[in-house]
Structures are given as structure tokens and as C-alpha cells.
Fold each of these.
Amino acid sequence: MPERPETPVADRELTAEAVAEVLPIDAGLAVPMAAVEADEGIAKKKLGIGAWIAIVWLVGLVLACLLVPILPVSGVEERNSDLAFQQPFCTAADCVSGHPLGGDSIGRDMLARLIYGARNSLFVGIGSVTMGILVGGFLGLVAGYRRGRLETAIVAAMDVMLSVPALILALALTIFLEERVQEIFKSKETAGRLTLTFALGIIAIPTLARITRANTLVWSQREFVTAARAQGAKDFRIMFREVLPNVVPAMAAIALLAVAVIVIAEASISILGAGIDLPAPTWGNTIVGGYKHLTNGKAPHIVFEPSAAIFITVLSLNYLGDAVRAKFDVREAGV
Amino acid sequence: MIAAACGGSGGGGGEGGGEGATFDDPPTDEGTPQRGGKVTYGLEAETGGGWCLPSSQLAAGGIQVAGAIYDTLTIPANDGEGGVEYVPFLAESVEPDDTFTQWTIKVREGITFHDGTPLNAEAVKGTLDAFRGQNPNIGAPLFTFVFEKVSAVDVVDDLTVMVTTEVPWVAFDAFLWSTGRLGIVAPAQLAAPDTCNRNLIGTGPFRIINCETESCGWTINDKFVAEANPDYWREDENGEKLPYLDAIEFRPVIDVAQRVNGLKGGELNMIHTTDGQQTENLRTDADAGTVNLFESDFAAETSYTMLNTDESSPFSNQHARLAVAYAGDPQEFIDLTQAGLPARSVQPFSPDNLAYNDPADVKFPKQDLDKAREEIELYKQDTGQSELAFDLLSTTDPGTVEIAQLLQSQVEEAGIRVTLEQVEQTQIINTALAGDFQAVLWRNHPGGDPDTQLVWWFSVVESGADNFVNFSRIHDADIDRIFTEGRSETDPAARAEIYKELPKVFAEQAYNIWGWYTLWAFAGADDVHGIFPPTLPDGQEPVVIASVQSVVGMWIG
Amino acid sequence: MNRADIPTWVWPVAALVVVLFLFLFVSATIAMAVVGLGLAGSVVVFAGWRRLVQVFVVILLVTFFASMLIRFLPGDPTDSLLGFATPEQKAQVADELGLNDPFYVQYGRFVEDFFTGETRYYQSSGRAIGGQKVWERLGDALPISLQLMFYAQILALVFALPIGIFAAYKAGTRMDKGLNTVAFGLLSLPNFVLAYILIYWLAVKNNVFPSQGYVPFGESASEHFKSMFLPSVSLAVGQIAIYMRLLRSDMIQTLQEDFITMARAKGLTTRRILLRHALRPSSFSLLTVAAINLGALIGGAVVLEVVFQLGGVGTLIIQAVNEQQFIALQTFVGLIAIAYVGANVAVDVLYSVLDPRIRHARAA
């Protein structure tokens, strides 16, 4: 396990960036992803009970997504008129049994909609963060290691991208890409997923690049890097063999936090009217489709169930991400 | 859902619903109208293109605003037998000659536009010519086609205009209403085409502060504010000047739940809606006395699935159309998404229309999955396709998307594969115009004389080119014949017989999958009265057709 | 004086100047309050000019980038403008709107219009063109977004400060752990989910607040606050959690420092120590994020604006995207970029002034 470096305070880059890395995506608000301790206790213990609950939820969710075809859950398109508007945990005589989470407005099983929705929402979340880390991480690594003009160019480009309000950019990209992607991939659901993944991936790139760069900066100044250079190792080799392994753990933490933000972003984009089209379910579009039944009081569970799913998932990801970061992130040595 | 509506006359009684007042019995004694106050009216959509009436595509929301600012030459009235006749409104008289090729229109004396200029024959001619596409500065693509058969509009004297038509046009007076779209526009508004869509000058009960360069009064996507016209020409039965209100404000609130909540919360004191679930909700409130509710499905428009019969679409094959007709169950839509309120329709015309047939006579396909599968097989044999698959288009409105998902789910049971697509409200008319669809959820054909629906289904325009607003690209010789003959048949009984064939042709060909008759609900706060309009100037009882609710008689107290 | 009498270019220039000066002024004020030195002034000015040029370049890049992207949006403005029209009519309108000109010409026109306040919506009436100025629509929408922002931030700070200080003081206790857990939960709660909960509980079930709509303050103060309450609370709650944790985290470290120990030894009351000695040095992160949020929120909390139908800048943006109002959209992006970059500049300046370590490093 890499130790934390002790860089003298005065040498550190004390700009707004370093203090609060922010992913300005959620409603245009800053969501600081650093400089906040999850819990002092965590750094000492292995992983607290909270983190384990989070892991259980997330793993359970992923398993449910993967195994849903063989689980005793209705099909995602299966519909039963009698099930329409049925409340969750309904026990009255005229309730259709076997639907613990109730039915949606046209008679589909809510549990099925949620699990299949999770598939889409998580696909988008994980996919776009992966893309963001691969591209943004690479850019950040290069910028942080090489310094100089290349760094300035990359930083400037990232700054420009960050200045466009992220949600708007994502919205525009989604609308723009949708048609074109659909020409390639005939399936609407696949096209929708890929479009959204790509669009959200693009807006994740600048922040992930920034964070990677910040981490790389610190690690590049270590003695073993200087030593490797003195031995004549090529830049790329040093970057990938010496620096990267040390940066990865911190990035893993950030990745978890980023997935949480992207899950919220997917729902936000659905609320704004873009996003994956029904009948393919996502948590976001289930909320949008069910909103009129919240406000007319008939079936608020159609909105609240996916909302709860989003909340618990985001909470778990945040908690886990915080815990991991508290263990690994080099910049945690208080600012 | 879209309303791209045209109006007309009609016959037969209407049904209202539940606790709302109906066409048959509008609210009785509401007390003495009081002056003052403002109505804030929540509309279902904004009118992005503004109100240059000859060229605007007014949907329900736009027609409401137009009705406040403008008056039409004729207006639908209760004919005393549960039907509708078109009576002079802004006009003093509208008389055809014996051949129905010359219509003499005389306007009432002493009426002025909001800018003080007189309502006279020149102004009427100017408006009618603009609607006919004769104004070089104002395009009127749809109405030019509607009024194709008008050959001339001539000024006879200061108050009288004569319209000459190429063919005998029996129901021309219905067209002078055109579901409230044919408001008479002041020459000054038409003379400035740049600002025509927002510098609105009419003769109506409300006026906006006329702004030549800025768009005062109308803030797009926000509100449209108009003050009472102090020189309005109408009075109520007791000689009191109309309108009673000081001002009216129209606000587009697209989300119906928010519109209803706005009413309950007090931000709006008047709304309209076609959503069955919300109407059910409003009935409960009406029972409790917290809202005043008026419902009407009189001369209603129909909500349906429109099919594109163009060669590029699977629906060019009759078997494909029939397959979808047999596979679907619109009653389930009604029950699940409209709280069971509206009435099922198997034809485009409502019971009040002279072309209405008894549903049993129409023989529209009833849900029968076996028959649907048979039709699919026939389709496959005809075309060599391995399956029947189509795209279903709808707006992004969640309520409409629900219906689309239901339809998809129903027909998939028969083995038809459906892909859903959602398009912004602002884009959907263009998509339809371009024929860029296979099936789309639609709403149209309110009430009235069947003649007014010619424009949607006739195959060609005068020049012989394809009719560009015949979205379904229907080229049916029977339909063309029905419309041609019906327009000029002077004997009412014979005319009705001609038009009655139309629903049967539609049922046989399944060009459109009819759903239900749209039920409009108009709800005001408990202190808002006069939702049902006052007696007409010449003493007749008015009617409320589709979404057109006249605001002239509303009062607060 | 009538609004129409003032030359139109005055507005955006004035706004730009006001926004930048506001942030610089706020930074300088805080700096002087905290540090109490005239040194603050000179640092602000120096840093300001260099960064101003940077800001200008970034804004041009952002608008260029955004304009290119927007050009690629599917759909043609003439479609939503004209509805029923023949292709020839649409082509003519497209010409009149300048949509067929090469990109650099259109961009140049946009930049010129942007800095003179002349950017307009596309609007067509039959054949003639003439749309409302974007700035006018903004004039109505901007106050709404700003109000939402201010109310939410004020609410957030009002709650976060005392709770954060308290939690830091009680660091490690069960009370602190409890607060932390609650805060963590709240910052994981998406603001629109909270909005749905509040709407259902307070607007649908119990008609206490309106579920949508905006009432201007001038129209009715009580209705105004009622209409803004649910949106502000929805926006603020997440921020309370974030600010509280930032403050707590920084304050815990500050409280461990020598000068605090010395203050305690001197016998100062806890309250005095917390508020007068510990609070200021601990507020860097909090102020940073708050300032960045101010900048970011100029663009409106888009999702909440849609949920509550507030008609602020965010709503305008979404409408512009849906209606292919390219010029309007580019204008909004440009303005938001200015605000956001301006906020970042202010924060940088603020930071370099506030942090004694940098000042001492520079002075050395």
C-alpha cells in the first residue's frame, strides 16, 4: 500500500481546484468529491458496517440485474390490466398477488420495471464513468506527468468544457447523438443506452481528467519516479508502471462517486425530456411517466419506488466511495 | 395529444358527464354577475407561432386566446332540437342564394376594432382574402386549401360583402366559424406582416396593449395578458356591457397535473383539460363545492391512431391496417388512462353530427386476436414480409406515452412488433406533414358539419397535386366522391345519407383506428362563474363545441 | 426612464461588468474583513486583470464550442416556426434567418449580437421575421433564477454554519456521528426526489404550498415566498449537508492547531473561540464551494425549475433546446459561461488573498 507523501504545504497548488474537486453536474451544482472526511473512524478500521451494507446493496443490485431473466419476476413488458395502480404490499381481496411493489399505471409489475430499469441506469452509469476514466484518466495522467505546454493545453480544454453547464451539454449531446446512433444500432433501447452513456461520458471526462492530474502531480514528484527517469526509462513506461498504480486506488474511489452522480444525471435528463424512451425502463423515465399519478394522488408509489432506488444506490456509492477514498486518496492529508 | 381541429355544424344532443354541467343543462342561476376581477386561465399549450390568424396553426390553447381577442362572423348555437345551427354573430346576417353559390354577409353596424377603426366590408374582405391566400404578405397554407372553392369576395356596400363559390356550398356558414379560427382581423394588423403574429387587433371582448415593436401582453411560454375592451359591442340579457372581467390572463401549463394543482392552489382560477383521470379528480372537487365544473363532449373531436397509407409504410396494405384494428382494444385505453370517462368511438363523427351512424351499423373491427392473426398472415402473403412491424409515434406528454405503451402491449399479443418513438409537440405536425410516420396518436375532427373535414381526407388539391394535409395519404375514390357530392347537396336528408357512408368506408378500410370522443372539462375556482357563455346577441342559446369555451361572460364573485 | 430608451448594448456590458465587480468586490470585502489589510486590495487588482484576459478567452472558446455543438442539433428552426408550410417557404425563411450562411459568418454575427445585446429569438409570422430579444426574456427569467439561488444558498448557509460548528465542536461524539450520517444521507438525496416528496406531502396531500408556478415579489410578497419555498428547500437541503460537512471537516483541523490551544489556555469562552478564532480560517472550502455554486446556479437549477415550472433561466434553456432556438441557446451558454468563469476567478482571487500560507510564501 502506497504511503501518503508529505509534500510541504507551500509547494502545493493551492487553487480552487485542488481544494474542492467538483463535478458540476447535478442541477448545475457543485458536488464536492474531495476534501470531505467520511468519518475519521473509517481510516482506522478496515471498512465500517455502513460500507458493508452499501456493498451488499450494490452487489445485490448488480446480481439482480444480471440474473433477472431467471428470477421469479414478471417480464418487463408483461401487463395485466387488473394490476394497474395497485399499491405496494397490497393485501385486499382484489389485489393481484405476487407483485410486492405494486403495479404501474398500465398494469406492469413495478419490481420488474425497477430491476430492468436498474440495468439501464447502471449500464449508463458504469459505462460513462468507464469512458470518462479511460479518456479523462489518460489525459489527466499525461497532463500531470508531462507538465509543460501539453498540460496547459489539456487543462485549458478541460476548463472550457467545464464552463458549459454540464446538464445542458449532456442534453444537447443526447439529442444530437440519438438519431445518428439509432441509424447504426437498430434496437432503440440499445441506441438509447449508448447515446446516453456516450453523452454523459463526455461530460465526465473533464472532471476525471482534473482529478487524475491532481493525483498524478503529487505522485510524479516522488523519488522512485525520479529514480526511474534517471535510469533512462521511457516516459510512457514510467507513467504506466510507476505512477498509474498509485493513482488507481484514488481513482477507484472517485469512480464510485462519479457513478452516483451519473445515475442522478440520467434521471435528470429523463426529467428534462431527453433520455431513454419508454417502454424501455430506466429509473428516471419511470419517475417521469408516473409523475401525474403522484400529483393526482392515485399512485405515488410509481414515483417513490424508483426514487428510493436511486437514493439508496447513490447513498451506497457515496458511502463506499468515501470509505475507499479515505483509505487511499493522497490529498486527504488535510487542506 | 394534438388538436388540429376544424369546426362545423352538427345535430343531435350531447352528453356531459357526472357532476359537470352539460350541453343539455348548463349551470342555472349563478346569481347576478359582478364586475371586476381577473381570470387566470391555464391552457394546455403555448401558441408558439402567435396569432396571425390566416397563417397560424391554432390548437386548443390558441383558439381560446383568439376567442378573447377576436369575433367570428358566425357562431354555433343551439337549434332548439338538440342540434347545432350556425347563426350570425359578428355578422348581422349571412344569407345564401338559392344555388348556394353566393353568400351575402352583412356585418353589424357601429362595431370598431380595438384600434378604433370601423368594422366594415373592407375589413371583412381583407380578412377573408388573407385566409384565401390572396394577401401577398401573409401566407395561409392550410386555409388557402380550405377555401379553394371560393372564387371571389366582393364588397357590395359599406357593411356588406358577397362571397362567390365555384360549387354550391351548403354549409359555408360553418366555415365562417372554423372552430373559432376565422376571427375578423383589423386591416392594421394584416398590413404589418412582421408583427402580425403578436400585434393583435380584433373586435373581441378583450384587447392587448398594441405594441408594434415589442411583444407586450404576450410573453411567450409565460403568459398572455389582455384587458377588457371598454367599447365591446355586446351586452348581456339585462343590457349590461360585456365583458364583466377587468382582465384575462392565459398561461400555458403543459403538464395537466400541474394545471389542476394550479387551480387548487389558487395560482390559476380557470383551466381546461381532456385528461380523464384529472376530470374524475375535478368531479370530486365539484361535488365538494370547491370548483365549478362544466364538461362537454358535444360535437367532440376524436382521439385515434392515425395510420399512414403511403407506399413506404406497412399500412399501405389493408390487411396490416385491419390487423392492428382487430388487435387493439381502445376500451382498455379509456379504462386505464382516462378513468373510463370518455365514450368509445368507432367513427370520426360524434353523435351530434349528421353523419353519425349507429355504432352497430358501422361495423368497425372489434377486438379479436384470432382475426388479427389472420390478417397478419394475409399481409405477409401479400407483401412477402416475415412479420408485421411498425413505428408508433406520439408526443412526449407522459399521458400520451402511456397510451402508446398500452397500444404496443395490446397488439404485441397478436404478434405485431411495435417500436415507440416520441417527438416534441412542436415537431409533430411537421412530422405528420412530411409523412414521416407509420402510425401516430392523434386527435382531430371536432363536431360539426362533416364538410369541414374534407380538407383532411380529400386526395388532391385544386391543382391536382397531393393534398398535403391529408396526413394519411388516403387516395380513396369513395371518400372523394362523398365529399364532393355532400358539399353541394341541398336536400338535408339526402346530404345526411351521403355523409353517413363515410364512417363505413373508414371502418372497412381501417384507415384510422378510432379511440374515443374527447371529453373537455372546464373548471373554475369556486368564485368563477359564467363558464357557460351568455345568450347570443340575437337571443339564441350558445353551445360549447370541443375546446372552444367563450370567455366573454365570465365573472368573479 | 423607459427601458426602451437605453441603448441595447448597455445591458449585457453592464451585466458583465456588474457580475465581475460583484464577485471581485465580495472577495475583497471578505478579504479585508478577515485580514484587515490594505494588502488585500492590491492583490485583488493584480490578480484580477491577468485573469480577466483569461476569462475573456475562455468565454470566446466556450461560445465557439457551444455554437458548433448547437449547429449539429437535429431539427431545423423553420420546422417549429412554420408548421404548415411548403419547402420553398421554409427555405426562404431559413435564408432570412441566415441559417444557410457558412458557420464562421453565423458565429461572427452571433458574437457581434451577443456583445451588443441584440441576439434574438427566431420568430416568424407568415413570411416576415422578427423575434423577441433574448435579453428581454432573460430580464424576466434571470430574477427568478437568482432569487432561487439566493434563497437556497442563504437557507443552506444559515443552517450549515451552526450545525457544522456544533458538529466540529462535538467531533467524535455520538451526536456528531449522528449528524454526519444524516448529512451524508441528505447529500445523497437527489434534489428532485426531495422535491417530489415535498410536493406530495405539502402540496398534494395538504394544500399548504403550490406545486408549481412563480409569483413575483411585486405581485404578492406572501404568495411569492410560498411559491419559492418548496423549490428553495429542495435545493438547499443537499447544500446544507455539503456545507456542513466541509465546515466541520476544516474546523476540526483548525481546532487542533496551536493558536486554539493557546486561546483555550488564555481562558476564552468556547463560544468566542469557535466563532471569532476558529471560524474564519476554517471557512475556505465552504466559501469556495459556495462561490462556485453561485456561479453555477446562474444557469438555473434546471431540473427543479422544470419540476416546479418556475420559468427561470433553466426553463428558457430547455425551451430553446426543444425549439431549436440556436441563437438564444448560444446566448444563454455564453452568459452562463461568463457567470461561472467569473465565479471561479473570484474564488481564485479570494483564495490567494485569504490563505495566509500563500500570502506568507509570497511575502517571504
Amino acid sequence: MRKFEDLGILNINSSLYKTRLTNKYTNRKPYKIEDPGLVLSFIPGTIVDILVEPGQIVKRDDLLIVLDAMKMQNHIKCKVNGVVKSVLVNKGDKVPKGIVLLQIEQS
Amino acid sequence: MALNRKIEELHERRQRLLMGGGEKALEKQKALGKRTARERIMALLDADSFNEYDLFVEHDARDFDMDKKILASDGVITGTGTVYGAPVAIYAQDFTVAGGSLGLMHSRKITKIMDHALKMRIPLIGINDSGGARIQEGVNSLAGYGEIFFRNTLSSGVIPQISVILGPCAGGAVYSPALTDFVFVVDNISKMFITGPEVIKTVLGEEISMEELGGARIHSEVSGNAHFFAENEDECFEKIKKLITFIPWNNTRKARPFDPSEPKKEYDIEKIVPDEPTLPYDVRDVIKAVIDNSDFFEIMERYARNMIIGFGRIKGKTTGFVANQPLEMAGVLDVDSSDKAARFIRYCNAFNIPIVTFVDLPGYMPGIDQEHAGVIRHGAKVLYAYSEATVPKITVILRKAYGGGYIAMGSRHLRADFVFAWPAAEIAVMGPEGAANIIFKKEIMSSDNPEETRKLKVEEYKEKFANPYVAASRGYIDAVIEPGETRKFLIHSITVSENKSIQMPEKKHGVPPF
């Protein structure tokens, strides 16, 4: 019988299988539940306008930030009701995808 | 003699055009480690079998100084020839002529040879090596691509279509290979992507090299766009030629039968699968132990390695193989392996190739990323493909066949014609550990020694359910066979189903979860 190297363990329904594991599986990131109070950049771009400031009361669908990307002015809208806790970017900043632009304390 | 002069003139004109983009451009192609378009055609086709058409085609574009440009054969070489005697239609883009860019006449040459291939019902081979649309010809280039894609679709499932990416293939151009049956890529030469690194940098600010974005390794290991990977062009051509020996010329024929031969002695089928069901083995060894000359032509070797697909011969007849690979991720079914298996099953069905399925899997891969990626609709593709297939379907359950995995992998219920199981097969709703934990949960929890009880219950479940006999008692499998008898049963099944003929309910076509 052939001998195999680089074997790991994969648990399927309480049975432990000795098998090769893919990099995709071993490097998987734990699932993070989305926090609607964190406003993230959904695409890399440039901050064109910030329409709120810390302490401001906001409600759903309020326009928070205008992000220039893919030749468009992208409107980033508020998803919750609450108060702006902090603004972490400035007008003119070039931002990558997935960073926190501002935080909202939900009410 | 006037005729002699005319013949001389023909030779002169030909010679000029055979130089393609000229001496310098040919040198540049070589310096990049690439063969020229003509060299590629000659390397692929049988000696002296190439008949070229449209050598003298010229573009008639006028915008952007095009009227001053002479482009030999408008940058693509088309014709027919044979591969090991089988007739094929072929085109090869010539990177030395205007970067192999596609203009109207260039595309007309390609669509003409595609029309020939469909009319004559012969395989089509497309060698892609092009900078993309010829910008000077504007919308005509787009029209050209569109006409090609339509024909790829029209011919899909009628004649085999093979794409070879031997240079850049970017933007709209990539859709032709994507619509064909098999895509071949070569390390460091193939570059396939919709938008290239420069555009990605400008628009998204992300940096990546051409190779990392759409090189041969990426497409054969990560994206699943390529089916065959080769280290160099020569290896690529050998693989193409071998593939052609396994498939028929068109969908009304069967693949050419070879002289039968026995599997190689070094593959002892009884010494491959471990007794312990949680230990791995390479299922390709099992395949090699039952096919002629142990010659297994694997497809998509580097992608979704937990599923094995490919061609082998049984008593000389081409057979498609689908098998779970316990050596990789315990052979689970997941998004990528489902896609891989489903498309191959449909290919075999389209081209009259019987399908043999080897089953050994613990089920579908659990996980949030799998669920969110749509393992449900991707997994359904396997069920759909098996159910829809009317070619002979033979299934051998080697070891584990739990739950949904049992159903999906060519079970009787999806109308497999012959289903066999090895004596150590476990056909059950789930594995003994999982089952014991669920079914006997109360007893285990209320026991004085839960661990002891659990072990006992696992053994009990193993005895009663983790075997092939419950399924056999219902006729869900046809026979429990010894591993050493497998080839004999496969040969007999393939022979008996030679003239299988069934009808599916009349419909234009189904609506599979694409």
C-alpha cells in the first residue's frame, strides 16, 4: 500500500479523515458577522466629500460619504439610525477596499 | 511557357506571405520562447496533411492609415488537416502580423473555417495568440468576435472544440476559449484575462503581474478556466493529439476503438484501498488498475483535486471516468468539484462516451464559505448532469457513500445502468460516528459511561448499516463484487450497453442551475 505525506485531519460529521488539505481550507478566515455600525469602503477610490461629522444624528439612507471610483461618484449611505461616533478619513484621501471610513453608534 | 511564369508568380506570392510579419517579427516571437503560428500547426498536424485556405486574404480597412499596411494573411492561418488520421479544422493566430489582432477579414477567415468544421462535422482546434481587437477596425472587430462566439455555441456538443492559448488572449477574445470544450494552457506563455494589469491598476489601484492575474498556473489551479496545463508548447501538442484519440469526430459517432490491452501488473487493485475507512489512497490507482494499459488521461488535474475526471479505455473503447479522490479533502463534494464533474459528465453525454463512476466520499463539504458560495446550486449540477445523461452509466461504490453524496455520485436513482459495490462499501445516511451521536444521543447522554456506550453504538451502527447489503437488499445496487472482479464487470457492462437507447421527455432543453 502506498504511503502518503503531508496529510492533515478533516472532520466530517464527527468522523476524522486523514487526507491532504487545500491551502484554501487551512488558510480560511473565521467568519465575521457584519457590523452595520461600521461603514466600509466597498471599492478602492478617492474620498470626494464627507457630509457628516462626529456627534451628528443620522438615520437610514442618509448620505454619509461620496467616493470617487470607476469613473463614478459613489454614494455611501447610512444603514442604521444613530449618532456618528468617529470619522476616520479626510477629503482627498485615496482609500483601498474594505477599510473603515466612519463608525456609527446605533440607537 | 506562360504557365511556368504563372506558377513562379504563385510561388513568389506564397513565399512572401509565408514570412508572416517578416524576419524581425519572427525573431521576436522566438525570443519570447514561442513558436510561430505555422510551426505550431505543423507540430500538431500529421506531416504533409495541412491544406491551407485563405492565404491571400487581405483586409480592406482604410481608417487610421490601415490602407498603408500590408498584413500577411491578415494575421491568421486557417485550414484543415489530420491528427493521427482524424480530420480536423484548425486556425492559428499569427502574433507577428499586427500582434495577431483581430480585424474583419481575420475574423471572416476564422468563421469560415468554423463553418467548414460544423458542416463537415469534424473537430475544431483554435490556437489563440493575439493582442485582441484591432482597434483601427473599430466595431468591425467586435462584430468579428461576436460571429465567432455564436458559432462556438452553435457547434457546442456537435463537434469537439479545442482552444490552445499560446500567447495573450485578453478582453473579449477570452470568450471563444470559454465556450469551447477544452482549453490548453502553457506555463509562462498563456495569458488570459478580461481586463489586464494596467487597467486594474488605474481603476482599482490593485497591483498584479500578468502571470499572477491570468497565467497558465492560475487558470489550471485556481480559476478552473483551463483543462490542461503543459510546461512547454511541445508537451501541449502531444496532449492535444492524445486527447483527439479519445474523442469522436462528432456527436453522431463513437470514439475510435483501439486494440484492447490489459492493465499493467504493477496496479494490484486489492492492495490500493486501506481497510480503515478514514485513511486515504489515490483513486487514480484504482482507475489505472482497471483500464487498458493503465493509460489514464486525466483532465483538469490541478483543479478541484478532490474530484478526478478523465478518459481511459475499456477493451479498446473510450470511457469517461468520474471518481472521488479520498487523498484530497477526503473526496468531499464542494462547489468546484461539483462544477468539474458536472461539465465532464455532460461532455461524455454529448459525445456518446460511457461514464464509469467510482464512489468513495463522506458527503458534501460543510462550511460557511461553501454555503455562501452556493454549494447548493453547484452541487445540484452533478445531480442534473447524471440524471440527464443517456449514455451508459456504470457506478462502482468502493468504500464510503454517505447521504447526499451517495445519491449524487451516479446512483441507481439517477438512472445509473449498473451499480456495483465492493464488500467494504458503506452505503448509509452518514458515517457511523455521526450517526451514533445523533440516533443514539439519548442513550449515550443517559448512560453511566457515555464514552463506552458511544463506542458500542458506533459498532452497532457499523454492523447494521455501514455495509452494502442494506442497499443490495432493496436492489439499489445490482451486485456486491470483489475488487479483483471489477474490470470483468466493467467490460461486461460496457459490452451489454453498446446499443443503449432511451428517450428523455420532449423539451427544448432543461433549465439546470447554471
